[in-house]
Amino acid sequence: MLSDFSLKFQAEEQPERPLWRAIQSTEILHFVRSLLLAYDVIGVQKKRGRLVLDSLQDAADLVLEFPPAVHSPKKFLFPHWDQLFRFKLDENILLEAETAAPPRIIFGMHPCDLHAVKILDDCLFEGETDSSYRAKREATLLIGVDCTPDEFCFCTSLGTDRIAEGFDLFLHKRDGHYLIQTGSERGRKLLQDHAPETYDGPEESPLPLQVKQCDNKIKFPFESLPNLLEDAYDDKIWQELGHRCLGCGSCTLLCPTCYCFNVQDKLEISMQEGQRIRTWDSCQFDQFAQVANGNNFRSSQADRQRHRFFRKYKYLWEKHQRTACVGCGRCRRECLSEIEPVTVLNQMFADSPQPAETRPGSEYQPQMAQIIDVEQLSEKDRLFRLRLPQSIDFTPGSFMQISVFGLGEAPFSIASAPDGGNEIELMVRKAGTLTQALHRSRKGDSIGLRGPFGSGYPLASMHGKDLLLVAGGRGLLAIRSLLQAALADRHNFGRITLLCGARDIEALVFPEDLLDWHRSELLDCRIAVKDPDNSWGIPSLDISYLFKDLDIDPQRTIAAVSGPPEMYRQVNPLLFRMGLAEENLYLNLERHMKCGLGKCGKCQINNIYVCECGPIFPYSAIKHLGEAIER
Amino acid sequence: MKIELDYLTRIEGHGHLIVERDGDKIVNCRLQVVETPRFFEAMLQGRHISDVSTIVARVCGVCSISHTLVSLKTMEKALQIEVPPQAQLLRRLLSYGETAQSHLLHLYFMALPDHLGVPSLFKLLDSKQELVARALRLKRTANRICEVVGGRSIHPVTTCLGGFSARPEASELKKLRQELVATLPDLEATVELFASFEFPAFNRQRNALCLAPENDYPLSSDNLLSSNHERFPVTSHHQRIEEYISPDSTAKLARCEGDCYMVGPQARLRNGQQKLSPMAAKVATALSLEQTTLNPFENLKARLVEVIHCIEEALHCIDELLLRGMGRVVTPNIPSLAGEATAAIEAPRGTLFHSYRFNTQGIIEEANCIIPTAQNLASIEEDFKRLLPQLLDLSAADIQHKLEMLVRAYDPCLSCSTH
Amino acid sequence: MKMKVGLFDFAGCEGCQLTVMNLEDQLLQVLQHIELVEFRELMTETAEQIDIAFVEGSICRPGDRQRLKQIRQRSKVLVALGSCADNGGVNALGSDRTPEVLRQQVYANDLPHLYTETPQPLSAVVKVDYRVPGCPIDGQEFLAILQALLLQQQPELPAFAVCVECKLAEYPCSFDYGQVCLGPVTRAGCRAICIDGGGHCRGCRGLIDNPRTSPYHRILEQHGLTVEEILDQYRTFNVSEKAP
Q1: A&C contacts, CB < 8 Å
Q2: A246–C161: do the CB atoms touch at under 8 Å?
Q3: What is the mean pLDDT of residues C138-152?
Q4: Which among A45, A48, A57 is the top mutation candidate for probing chain B, defined by the most B β-carbons within 10 Å of its own β-carbon?
Q5: Beta carbons of C147 and A71 less than 8 Å apart
Q6: Is residue C48 scored above 90 in pLDDT?
Q7: Could you report the per-residue pLDDT of A82-124, keeping only the tens digit for each?
């Protein structure tokens, strides 16, 4: 869950309409002077001849036009030396955790750094809220200011050169004065209390979003970064970076969003008591990934650089749908080896296999596949075996779009396992006009196909684990694909259990397969139907009943649950009660995926596109999405 | 009777004390300096002038600042580099800090235990808490001067050819000033304490040498002044001062016009008492230090007077710096010139000479350092000879203790003297 | 029982012992937890048995070896204090010449009491359990190491380079001024005090465990500097150590 706090921040604190007001430099000076009486004011100032971000002593020292080279406000929001709690040694007692933070104002933050705070919020409020960060974040007001990008900035490539919200106040530079914009109720009040308006003119009209110019540019849309990296795991560029990198960690230490840390105990000189502190750590350090036996699971500098890029542009994207990079250029500016993310990414893009020149609109055009077999599964269900012109690569849980010209297109889960060949099975239940038309197709006919789309179950990461597969109704389609794949590679998995539930026998999708699996020794297959008068003569049971005498080892089990949302609401708590970890539970969140390209918006759950990021998700990734399984 | 004391304690560096007596006759009496030669003068050969001050600082931890400053002064003289006034004031301040901390370390930790009858000040941790705490407080403040100006109390990091590579902020100086003012009660208590001690009466005429007190108390001058009222330029020191080797010492000894002489606090006081700061002058009077006093045991009093002088002058230095306004540090270009020069500075223990010759690439071809303690060594031995006949009635342990106290009174820095 | 701690010195400037002394009020607090039993510079007392011996300076004469062995025998734990003890330090700067040549250059004399050998670290003579690097040592690091030893923990030195300290403290990079700097390959723990003082790093704390030599050399070249220049700096405190 995103913490209530950050939601509050964005929702309740946003004033109804931002206030815009002109403010002269002398007024700013008075403003800061007044703030200094009540707050710890952090600002850029000259110390020993260099610009640093630090606590202000004198309002006149504040520098508002500063280059992007100074430290980011991470220095104060997530400091390098942060006391978590104090302890006493002999009594073994823990003293109260350190959550107090002084009321503070960071006066002068460039848009990229304001974006960086959003990323820190994403990461540190996720799951167990980091209370120490939260305390500082709550006590700190953020005042943004315009900037001038230098040759290392690439914020324009990431959309972080402008900002519409996420600050309390923002100072826009105009000719000879500033235009101040309120971004929150707190900001408006701060302005009222500490910079009372002396000028009685009309309110300024709002400025449009201020866009910057950077010469340093990523030459492709940043949304393709996760996919670009996905294919670049073994790219030679990591070796090249590994050879250039000093491993000094400057890039991550100065990064406004890098927050990886180490936790240490520091004893007071009295040796009676001490504090547990956290300090910044860096994935670029030799010891970062070293474990107790001396092994290092990221032992080369190439691995470490790759990790840094993946974390910035892929891993956190997958969690929060934004890059963990704001294009501030600090990592490059301070890198003696001149490792420049923009150059690296552009080179990787240039080296990546580019899709063949496609005709406009071709992404919507299906290719033709031949029906090589049709099997009547039940009165309403038919299984089609299709042959494509070329081999097809997909993960279990992916789907295809079937076209019937004249009637349109509809998505269907692939019901067979990926086998590297060019044949797949799709199950079609007769319902509307399109499926009725499909049911009329015969062996040898051709139909239109687009796909595969979506991302399914990560099969390789399930190796060595027990599988608990839970299917409700048509949810069995994706599960069948997964199960067939696992059975084809049986020795790579531990125990396999399939629990399948439906309204009645007719609603079971693959009755024959189910009976086969039920008899098989390769897996434990249990079936429950609610209909008391079913033709198989099994007692009327709800699927939850199948969990009653279920014996699983939660540490080594991966659960794949596929069915309607009400089943998730029923089954998920049972699994968690057994001790299953949230990241080991996969749900199928199929929606009406119209285009399959992450564009049409029909399958969108809150802010994510199911067709692109799913339909198979680990629970931990979607639990915060209100629209996923809640009503 | 034979007294052989290996490794004298509560002095800087390694030395043995040997006394042999046959009836009423002393047949042998020596201070052996057994400090390891480290050959700094040879090590400097082949090094670039920009590294010299960093290396020579390591001659001695206690007086690293003096070595740093005199080496810079020597090279600046050779290259005719003008040091800006702000940097000159900062260097002066740095010197005061070093002298004060060195003297306080000696007074409280090396010398005081003799007068309180304990083997070390740490013995008084429980019984005289306030005394130990005061000693550490005073030392702290003196060290703070060195830290604020030099970046670190030992082996300074902000000094460079032509001035400074970094300077303190005005706010830091203001804070330092407050700390210095706050030590005055501790200084008063220190004066009271040392005024209460009796020092053995032992006056001996000798030549006392220091840099000439021209505008102020001896610190940094191009001329030397002896208690015989002779004034001569530092550059001609080798015409009078001669280094020589003794089979008893790894440090080279020195004589002035063929005779032993004294350098250090007492020499400076003797030749420059009229230039003491007002507070220090008062204390000198209170401690009944006369200009003519040359009782080596009373070196302690002279040292205390100098501590007060240093603190008072440091305050003036800070005021002047703040009044001028702290300007940027300017580091001059180092001209590619060959050069040769000698310069001297008053280090805590006396006059410290450095001489270098370097080529146009700035590579040192020859270096020499004359260390205050080396200049005092002959004087100490001479004192032994004069003092021992007065001690013959005492037990061996008492004789040994008196001689140890005599050596300590000079605050010898043996590692420095050997270098 | 308080642990018995002793400080000992061989050839060196005694600056590391003085750094301990300069801990002042912190030293006073430390003395609540240890018994200082031997510290020749400030104490007359000596001790038979020592729990932790901190030894400063390098070993240059046969007599030094004897004395060091005796200290080792008397001590449960022996810690090298400062770079002279750790690797020979600045004392070894003359090791490109024989002791005879050095003697002639400085004394022009060959009396036996002036005889020395090439300065060696303590570890050349006895087993050294731990080390406090630096010239001089950092007082706070000394305290942390002493604390660890008092609690019978393994003292740890930072594994990262001085660059980290510069970045944290927002110091400008020496390379930006065209100045050679050993910061990228030198073990941190000094709070980059020399760079703060407007200078550059001369590597007095020795190399990190895994210095990245080839990227480092490339960076030097890019800044118009030569490997020889950096080695010259490195030698100041590390003559006998492996070059970066």
Answers
A1: 75
A2: yes
A3: 94
A4: A48
A5: no
A6: yes
A7: 988 888 877 766 666 656 788 999 999 999 999 999 999 999 9
Judge: B166–A47 Cβ closer than 8 Å, yes or no. no
Contact of B385 with chain C, judged by CB distance below 8 Å, is answered with: no
Question: Which residues of chain A are in CATH 3.40.50.80 domains?
Answer: 460-629
> Could you write out the three-class secondary structure of A594-607?
CCCCCCCCCCEECC
Kindly give the pairing relationship between strand A367-376 and strand A446-453. Answer: antiparallel
Q: What is the pTM of this model?
A: 0.78
Residue ranges of B for the binding site for Mg(2+)? 41, 419
Are B353 and B183 contacting, i.e. CB atoms less than 8 angstroms apart? no
Q: What is the mean pLDDT of chain B?
A: 94
Sign of the CA dihedral A125, A130, A135, A141? negative
Partners of residue C33 in chain A, C-beta under 8 Å: 271
Query: Which residue ranges does chain C devote to CATH 3.40.50.700?
Result: 3-150
- From the list B322, B65, B301, the residue with the least C-alpha distance to B193 is B301
Residues of B annotated as binding site for Ni(2+)? 60, 63, 413
Superfamily for A366-453?
A: Translation factors (2.40.30.10)
The answer on pLDDT for B13 being more than 50 is yes
What is the value of ipTM here, to two decimals?
0.95
Which site among A87, A241, A269 would you substitute to test the C interface, given the most C Cβ atoms closer than 10 Å to its Cβ? A269
So what's the pLDDT on residue A4? 47
Say whether residue B166 is in contact with chain A using an 8 A CB cutoff.
yes
Sheet holding A40-47, edge to edge: A20-23, A178-182, A169-173, A140-145, A104-109, A40-47, A50-55
Q: What is the topology classification, in CATH, of domain B2-418? A: Cytochrome-c3 Hydrogenase; chain B (1.10.645)
Q: Which of C2, C20, C212, C230 should one mutate to test binding to chain A, selecting the residue with the greatest count of A CBs within 10 A?
A: C212
Distance, in Å, from the CA atom of B158 to the CA atom of B260, rounded to the nearest integer, reads: 37
**Chain B touched by A57 (CB under 8 Å):** yes
Residues of A in contact with C218 (CB under 8 A): 244, 337
Domain with CATH 2.40.30.10 in chain A: 366-453
Contact at 8 Å (CB) between B304 and B285?
Answer: no
CATH of A460-629, one of 3.30.1490.110, 3.30.70.100, 3.40.50.80, 3.40.50.2300: 3.40.50.80
Residues (pLDDT < 70) of chain A are 1-16, 92-99, 198-203, 354-361, 630-631
**Which chains have 3 or more CB–CB distances shorter than 8 Å to chain A?**
B, C
**Residue ranges covered by each domain of chain B:** 2-418
How many Å apart are CA A556 and CA A627, to the nearest integer? Answer: 29
Do residues B313 and B96 touch, judged by C-beta distance below 8 A? yes
Asked if A591 and A610 touch (Cβ cutoff 8 Å), the reply is yes
User: For residue B168, what is the nearest residue in chain A, using CA coordinates?
Assistant: A48
Chain segment B169-183, per-residue pLDDT in tens: 999 999 999 999 999
DSSP letter string, A189-216: HHHHHHS-----SPPPPPPPPPPP--SS
At B30-65, the pLDDT tens digits run 899 999 999 999 999 999 999 999 999 999 999 999
Secondary structure element (H or E) that encloses residue A55, with its range: strand A50-55
Q: What is the pLDDT of residue A360?
A: 61
CA-based nearest distance C142→chain A, Å: 12
In a 13 Å sphere around the CA of C241, the CA atoms on its Cβ side amount to 29
Rounded Cα–Cα distance for residues A207 and A201 (Å): 17
Q: Which homologous superfamily is C3-150 in?
A: NADH:ubiquinone oxidoreductase-like, 20kDa subunit (3.40.50.700)
Three-class DSSP category at B150: helix
Q: Which of B10, B58, B143 sits opposite C22 (nearest CB)?
A: B143
Considering only CA atoms, which of B205, B250, B202 is closest in space to residue B34? Answer: B250
